[in-house]
């Protein structure tokens, strides 16, 4: 069900950020289960940063904050970085592939929201 409190034009971005945050949290957890966890350290770090920022962006948009577009600009940048890292592992780790896809969708939604707010 759509959040009735959120400005309607933010809803697609809110949904993309929520989906991305969940994908990042799941990816970080799955990376911790990999045989060579040390190799996955950068991925885990970016997953966690991205998830936190996505959740933050959701709260800024849901409250109609005047700073939502700035948070979403940063969110898009972090999503891009996370996607790039996950794409390096995507061929042999499905959780990284799924995370990269969610990050790319979120970055696109955030950029669309920012351009609407401009």
UniProtKB/TrEMBL annotation:
Keyword Transmembrane helix: no
Keywords: Plasmid
CDD domains registered for this protein in UniProt: DUF326
InterPro entries per UniProt: Csp_YhjQ, YHJQ-like
Entry keyword Signal: no
Entry superkingdom: Bacteria
One Pfam family cited in the UniProt record for this chain: Csp
Protein name: Ferredoxin
Organism whose genome encodes this protein: Fibrisoma limi BUZ 3
Biological classification of the source: Bacteria, Pseudomonadati, Bacteroidota, Cytophagia, Cytophagales
